[in-house]
Amino acid sequence: MGYRVAVVGATGNVGREMMTILEELNFPVDEIHAIASRKSKGVEVSFGDRTLKCQDLEQFDFSTVDVVLMSAGGTVSKEWSEKIGKAGPIVIDNSSVFRMDKDVPLIVPEVNPDAVKDIRKNIVANPNCSTAQLVVALKPLHDAAKIKRVVVSTYQSVSGAGKEGMDELWNQTKAIYGLGDAKPKKFPKQIAFNVIPFIGAFNEDGYTDEEAKMWNEVHKMMDPEIKLTVTCVRVPVFVGHSEAVTVEFDRPISVDEARAILREAPGVLVVDKHEHDGYITPVDAAGEHAVYVSRIRKDHTVENGLSFWVVSDNLRKGAALNAVQIAQLLDETGTLKSSSGFRSITV
């Protein structure tokens, strides 16, 4: 027997990807419901070879499902996630609302699966898209040689800002070629043929909340002693976040040792050769499940330093894939109970 599943925000980029990945990973689904706002009621979405019509969030009875994948934005999550959790199902929330809540586990299954044992509000939080791929690469290295400090510069695709972000890049590109109106609407500056060193909102210290999310989430999931500084940059790429990462360890670690550790790490694929096909770009990673690590090399400016390049599909490992993997983890640990009362094992 499988589970009764609801996807909230089913018409968005991540919601549609959740539906796709549930089917791709053969998650045991008995019933599935596509949920959206009232204005999207009746809109059709795909689940495998089936077509589902979206149901109204405000009218849906969440006591009839076992697990809810929530990807409708922070405002909706703040209003609905706790109410849904109290109705019975476990909510896997993709927004930032509950990530730092001490009563809500923040989970990347390859990094801190044991956190699933401490669910108090029937809510599990999905991390920020840039954090998810970063910790998948950092955790196996931290286990081998304790990390002291990390410096990260992100190159984040427009899909991280939703469909509106993707539309803006597409429309601005067409407008510039056609001498049309390229005035920014979603982003603070032109994104086509440009990069924007700003994502989110400014904090008092000059960092953005997107940057703060990354170090707060790394501290919660991995180790609060790791020093981390981040610069988040939006780039004119449709799908796939990239990160230039420099790490300082408490002991020497060679390039070959790091490469060997990462090759054995869950969720990581190492593509690292000194040739043109020896590294991964966002185009290569789009549609894939892995976190790719390339260009591993010594950082000669510190005693025990390495630099490397990390790329992943932000709609997948950065959001939808990680959420479904959390659902698999809940299933495999017996935390999630199916409607029949029997646990279904995911292979």
From TrEMBL:
Binding-site residues, phosphate: R99
Pathways involved: Amino-acid biosynthesis; L-lysine biosynthesis via DAP pathway; (S)-tetrahydrodipicolinate from L-aspartate: step 2/4; Amino-acid biosynthesis; L-threonine biosynthesis; L-threonine from L-aspartate: step 2/5; Amino-acid biosynthesis; L-methionine biosynthesis via de novo pathway; L-homoserine from L-aspartate: step 2/3
Catalytic activity: L-aspartate 4-semialdehyde + phosphate + NADP(+) = 4-phospho-L-aspartate + NADPH + H(+)
Pfam family, one: Semialdhyde_dh
Amino-acid biosynthesis is among the record's keywords: yes
Enzyme type, top EC level: oxidoreductase
Active site (catalytic residues): C129, H241
Domain spans labelled Semialdehyde dehydrogenase NAD-binding: 4-119
Gene Ontology MF terms in the entry: aspartate-semialdehyde dehydrogenase activity; NAD binding; NADP binding; protein dimerization activity
GO biological process: one example: diaminopimelate biosynthetic process
Residue numbers binding substrate: Q156, R234
Keywords recorded for this protein, A-Z: Amino-acid biosynthesis, Diaminopimelate biosynthesis, Lysine biosynthesis, Methionine biosynthesis, NADP, Oxidoreductase, Threonine biosynthesis
Stated family: Belongs to the aspartate-semialdehyde dehydrogenase family.
PANTHER family, sorted: ASPARTATE-SEMIALDEHYDE DEHYDROGENASE (PTHR46278:SF2), DEHYDROGENASE, PUTATIVE-RELATED (PTHR46278)
Name by which UniProt lists this protein: Aspartate-semialdehyde dehydrogenase
Organism: Brevundimonas goettingensis
